[in-house]
Write a structure and sequence with these properties.
The chain has 12 helices and 2 strands, in the order ααααββαααααααα. The protein has about 290 residues and is mostly helical. Strands 1-2 form a two-stranded antiparallel sheet. A hairpin with a 2-residue loop joins strand 1 and strand 2.
């Protein structure tokens, strides 16, 4: 009985020990080794910090930058990407920083940038997007690789053919004229141009992609906006995969709900268009969803 009791205690302890060693290997040994190897090749950067990497520093610098007023003649880079601006000045045009435990090599020398862009995707694959980034962009061209990318690119080429874009011109003009007419009624008043152009973009996309008005797609754009806000505030938060599977934070649950809502709304608009074509109320399937 004593031997059985010892075994019952020993087995969980061994599992815990293996998990701890694996955790320390992934979150401490590997990052420090990569940092040492790149430092020996002349690639410097902010030092790795356990689990979080440099994410806390990035968040702090962004908060400080956004808290200061921006003049019309000020440089935009220190405002929108203060960490990149600061680290380029400190460590040089090419440097290494840590997004959690993921090393990211930043290059800003034109010749090296050309080299990356010229090479095949197998040499420089796209980095794995965050959960929130994937929810926002879906299965679009920006995230796809290989055969899937080729297939979607062909569809995109067909949709954005010159003749098709010419056919969209009257719709774009009509949307702009509607906006300008609304502005005439607000003469002498202050207009929030950013909001107006956001609405204009949404209106144009709704009419050209879905053959509907902005009002019909308003719910989609509202959910996209909310999803982008969630993504931006989680951009530099470090997450441990196992913990995320056991316990999902509020933002992750909300992003899943929004992504499903967007998908359902888009499919509803597509189905409505299909019914119009089947019933002879429309000439063709103008809805072309790339994502």
């Amino acid at each position: 009985m004593s031997a059985l009791t010892d075994l019952v205690i020993l087995v969980p302890f061994c599992f815990f020990l293996v998990a701890l060693i694996k955790f320390l290997y992934d979150y401490l040994w590997v990052p420090l080794r990569i940092q040492h190897l790149l430092n020996s090749q002349g690639i410097k950067g902010p030092p790795y910090k356990f689990i979080h990497g440099n994410n806390h520093e990035v968040t702090k610098m962004k908060k400080e930058a956004l808290s200061k007023p921006l003049g019309l003649t000020d440089d935009i880079l220190p405002r929108v990407q203060p960490h990149i601006y600061s680290w380029i000045n400190r460590y040089g045009r090419n440097y290494l920083y840590w997004n959690g435990i993921r090393p990211e090599l930043v290059i800003s020398e034109p010749e090296l940038v050309k080299e990356v862009l010229k090479n095949s995707e197998n040499t420089f694959p796209k980095k794995k997007p965050s959960i929130f980034f994937s929810k926002l962009l879906g299965n679009g061209l920006l995230l796809l690789e290989g055969e899937k990318w080729v297939k979607r690119r062909k569809l995109a080429n067909h949709v954005f053919h010159g003749e098709r874009l010419k056919n969209m011109t009257p719709t774009v003009i009509a949307s702009v004229e509607t906006m300008l007419e609304k502005w005439k009624g607000q003469e002498g008043k202050e207009i929030e141009v950013f909001q107006e152009f956001r609405l204009l973009t949404s209106e144009v996309i709704s009419r050209t992609a879905f053959d509907s008005s902005y009002l019909e797609g308003e719910k989609i754009f509202a959910m996209l906006k909310e999803l982008s806000i969630i993504m931006s505030r989680n951009n530099f938060k470090t997450r441990i995969p196992l913990i995320n599977k056991l316990w999902k934070p509020v933002d992750m649950l909300k992003s899943e709900e929004l992504a499903k809502g967007i998908q359902d709304c888009v499919m509803k608009i597509v189905k409505k268009r299909e019914d119009k074509v089947v019933n002879g109320e429309a000439d063709s399937f103008t809805c072309k969803c790339i994502s």
